[in-house]
Amino acid sequence: MGDMFRSEQMALCQMFIQPEAAYTSVSELGETGCVQFRDLNCTVNVFQRKFVTEVRRCDELERKIRYIETEIKKDGIALPDIQDDIPRAPNPREIIDLEAHLEKTETEMIELAQNEVNMKSNYLELTELRKVLENTQGFFSDQEVLNLDSSNRGAGVIDEATVQHRGRLGFVAGVINRERVFGFERMLWRISRGNVFLKRSDLDEPLNDPATGHPIYKTVFVAFFQGEQLKNRIKKVCTGFHASLYPCPSSHNEREEMVKNVRTRLEDLKLVLSQTEDHRSRVLATVSKNLPSWSIMVKKMKAIYHTLNLFNMDVTKKCLIGECWVPTKDLHIVQKALSDGSAAVGSTIPSFLNVIDTNEMPPTFNRTNKFTRGFQNLIDAYGIASYRECNPALYTCITFPFLFAVMFGDLGHGLILLLFGAWMVLSERKLGRIKNGGEIWNIFFGGRYIILLMGLFSCYTGFIYNDVFSKSMNLFGSNWVNNYNTSTVLANPSLQMPPRTSAKGVYPLGLDPIWQLADNKIIFLNSFKMKLSIIIGVLHMVFGVCMSVCNFVHFKRYSSIFLEFVPQILFLLLLFGYMVFMMFFKWFKYTAFTDSQPETPGCAPSVLIMFINMMLFKNTPPPSGCKEFMFDAQDGLQKTFVIIGLICVPWMLLGKPLYIKFTRRNTVAHVKHNGELTGNMELAEGETPLPTGSSGQEEGAGGAHGHEDEPMSEIYIHQAIHTIEYVLSTISHTASYLRLWALSLAHAQLSEVLWNMVLSLGLKMAPYTGAIALFVIFGAWCMFTLAILVMMEGLSAFLHTLRLHWVEFMSKFYEGLGYAFQPFSFKAIIDGEEEE
């Protein structure tokens, strides 16, 4: 409990490590994850530090791994999961072998990729040529028929001028992207003034881009023209529109022969491409088995060199000096890690660890487990606790799910949350391996124990409210007796059941199920839950004020107990605590089982009106036969409480400033600065460390800012702000706890409306049609229940509970001015990169 009650005690340490053992020592410290290093080279540029070359070397290795990983994912090869067998940081010899292996693999992959692109480019060109030859058969059919007729008639029959005219007719064939065809056709018409005849045919199947693999839709075209000048213009237009031109003979036989040759070359090239793909797949499959391990090794190696850049070299250049924060409980672990690091390289000179005193506030470290981590994250989201101040997470483990359950009190809805949380808890090992679940899933899974407890407590409060999906359970039978006969009951729509004659006693546990049928159910539940929320709120705030005493005692600020805690707790208890007392006294005093009229329920005064009269020193005339006050001397007691409460205001306002003024010292005691050793603090393995930090340090760490140099005017202003804030917040925070009543009532009414407006419709239908309709209606009811009552109402209750803890509870004692302990941990580095 000590670890959870307040943050762990920290020590500022100096490390003296030999350069040859620095890499292995820092590697061992990274595996332990209990050291936060400080940067001793703040004034040195990042690119001028000692190990910047090694960091760049690691960056280059990471680049190669990313390239290989991209190629593996491109081929759809799955990478193995190594969460159970994470490798350690590589030693220098392994680094050289890894670097050579990655270099060889990258070079081979680049060559294979380049060859593949070249072969695919050739394959694309041959495919386009084949498409041109196949799709231009119809373009030349008329001309070939003409040539065939001419050859049959004989050469003498053909006119020489016709032959010359046909000889001057030329053509250009090729392919072009389909989206550029219309612009290409328009441009040809403009440059030739309509003297180009263009025929085109769209390819049915898309072609693949050699570099990206994306599909490309193209069109085959043949442009007929006359004259060399027009031919040159057409070629320039084709170049501008990125059209590919291919040779296409006009003779049918030549085209057929050319198509056969192209198809043969395509088959050969396809075989070569297939073999290249198989070789590439084999290489990638072999590399994929070790790639995750290599990636983790390089990340660890890079983290080690980044950490070594935080060290400083001594003047003799023979020792690396580093400073770090370490939990005092883990000092022996750090000492052992340094010894193991020196032994790993066979260093004859051991590494030293010295604990030094400092007046700097240490980081805050709360050691958590998988159960308490979620609750600690809720507290840290408000603000990191100041060093060694009380940690609210210990009490939040109980108060948070309980306050949530007060607003979410339904046995059925709580059971849904309980089952969902239990599923995540029981399957946490399997579910924890999910990496791409999304941010929302990570939030749910991280708070699985919070959801489990919220569901458990909601089942309890739902049982107390006797509310299951807006219906009540008749477990113990009703304690109310119907004294009316059957004819009276049937003749009257509503009848009153006086407690004196109809109630047999107190219901064993929770609410009597008879209230489910009562017309005044809302009035009764309003009164009950409103008072319950005020009682819980005052108790919660009183507990928060009492927690401040733990901080005052720990930081030796005993004067604050009398000057701050006593007036605060008196102000809270004498006013609002007295109001809670009146609620309980009213419940016990006034009863229907009495013959004294002043003690009957009809004479019970309103607690709210009585509290207002108490604050305003007013009186309200009671009804005839009743008393204004609940007991004798109540009027005088209330006036005394109000007067003492008013005295507490100047007590809080002036007490602390006047105490500081009269006790201010003229001289300031010597304070140890960073770097001063605490005597013989050179730790050997197994030695017990002395406590670090003086009482002055812990007082400053606890948020008690020193007032030695602060002007008195600022102290008065600061205390006035705190006093006004506490007095006003006591009133507003008490009213803020009424949200417990409001959300509980809203949740119950929404559940009842959903039952009456949806599910009950299917239950009231005719037997045959109702049986079919009930399936659909029940599905809609389940969907609305999960979406509205469980998820939306659950989120609303969660946020309101979070606000009650952050503002109403923690503001009474929690400062949250610290900064988190961020140790050098390989596990944290790897997990953080996986989340990104």
Chart the SSEs and their pairings.
Blueprint: H1 2-5, E1 10-17, H2 19-32, E2 36-38, H3 52-74, H4 92-135, H5 141-153, H6 160-167, E3 169-177, H7 181-192, E4 197-202, E5 207-208, E6 215-216, E7 218-226, H8 228-240, E8 244-246, H9 252-288, H10 291-308, E9 312-313, E10 320-327, H11 331-344, E11 352-357, H12 373-382, H13 393-407, H14 411-426, H15 428-431, H16 439-446, H17 448-465, H18 486-491, H19 499-502, H20 521-554, H21 558-589, H22 607-616, H23 634-663, E12 676-682, H24 695-701, H25 712-736, H26 739-763, H27 767-809, H28 826-835
Antiparallel strand pairs: 1-10, 1-11, 2-10, 3-7, 3-8, 4-7, 5-6, 9-10, 11-12
Helix pairs in contact: 2-10, 2-11, 3-4, 3-9, 3-10, 4-9, 7-8, 12-13, 13-17, 13-26, 13-27, 14-17, 14-27, 20-21, 20-25, 20-26, 21-23, 21-25, 23-25, 26-27
Point out poorly predicted stretches. 144-167, 666-705
Note the beta-strand portion. Answer: 5-15%
Judging from the principal axes of the Cα atoms, what is the shape? extended
| Helical coverage, percent range | 55-70%
Distance between the termini: 34 Å
The major pleated sheet works out as:
6 strands, antiparallel
* Total strands: 12
- Averaging pLDDT over every residue, what do you get? 85
SS-based class: alpha+beta
Assembly level: single chain
Report the total helices.
28
Rounded to an integer in angstroms, the radius of gyration calculated over CA atoms is: 43 Å
